[in-house]
Amino acid sequence: MKKKWRVAGINFDHFHMGDLLRMAFEHPQAEIVGVCDDQPTRMETAVSNFGISRERVFTDVDACLAKARPDFVILCPATARHADYVEQVAPHKVHMLLEKPFAASVKDADQMIVAARKNRVMLAINWPLRWYASHCTAYRLLNQEVIGDLEEVHYYDGNRGPLWHTADKIEVTPTSAMKRKSWFYKKAQGGGSLLDYLGYGTTLGTWYHQGRKPIEVTTVINQPKGLEVDEHSITVARYARGLSKFETRWGTFTDPWKIQPQPKCGFVLKGSDGTISSYDYDPTVRVQSRRTPEGEDVPVDPVKPPFENPVQYFIDCLDRDRAPEGPLAPSVSRIGQQIVDSAMLSARLGKTVQLLP
Q1: Is 265 within 8 Å of 246 (Cβ atoms)?
Q2: Helix H or strand E segment including 238
């Protein structure tokens, strides 16, 4: 019999908490033993959906950890509070699955890495694009050198906006008042499309680039009048062997999980001997190679355990006492964060900057 892992969900700033708790609820080796948020109303949907008893509902993090005694927690705070929560949880000797992005800065990321290492607990960062069959297939094809050596990563992703949907992709219509209240639109809390989506591209891009780092970064943003944060950013990263582009967008014409907008959300990879286009949710990837320069549609690989979702994968890592790999690894996500920090600096200064350490 495999171990039953006790899990608690802490902080519901990000609506992905509902999705992640559902994954835990449906996993045969997981038991939801607690939820915690300082705003109780934000937990009500999860309490109802997953039959969580009232004695397992908390408003204080330390009380939750002491009484619920989870083996690991799912963390979904606003980006600017990631480091605070990891540093509070880690001394309880509890493993942590942190919802993207990694951090508001490399400094915060390093604080989290140190806290996890010091307390000998596992830290993983969930990037939902990691589980898309198309992007996993693209990674396999890259490793098989179907398109030779990777030279460029082109990324475009986003959605209509973070307030157009809740957990389980339930659609809502946002109001201006909702924007004023939401942390997604507050600069001090890590809001904006750049911080929300750029880390996806730069972290998976680092995975595709096999850990290589760019030399310099140039970023421009569009910040609509009356908002504290951007809703559109374009980042160009110069690597030793070429340019890669990462574009984030709140305000796509449609949400990609329902109808792909134009441009399509996903990745285009250019190698020395071909190209791969890998779009979110597509059943095939498009491959050009020396053998088939006209291109061919390659069916995506079936997604199998333990790679169906982040909770499944994290439990497998815990079962095997094996550190997370790929985009979930703090070392890979840190490089993605270096590019994000450099992009923010470039946008602020209005010029190209060297990659920040």
Answers
A1: no
A2: strand 232-239
Nearest-angstrom CA–CA distance, 72 and 123: 10
Q: Are 109 and 333 in contact (CB under 8 A)?
A: yes
Total-model pTM: 0.91
Amino acid in position 119: N
30 contacts 311 by C-beta, under 8 angstroms = yes
| Token pair of 11 as six digits | 């902080």
Beta carbons of 87 and 77 less than 8 angstroms apart? no
* Alpha-carbon 214 to chain mean position: 20
- Name the helix (H) or strand (E) containing 235: strand 232-239
DSSP string, 76-102: ---GGGHHHHHHHHGGGT-EEEEESS-
Cα distance between residue 305 and residue 316, in whole Å: 9
Which of 203, 138, 143 minimizes the C-alpha distance to 335? 203
Per-residue pLDDT tens over the stretch 289-314: 999 999 999 999 999 999 999 999 99
How buried is residue 201: exposed, middle or buried, by Cβ count under 10 Å (0-12/13-18/19+)? buried
Domains in the chain, please, with CATH?
A: 5-126 (3.40.50.720), 130-305+336-354 (3.30.360.10)
Contact 221, 133 (CB under 8 A): no
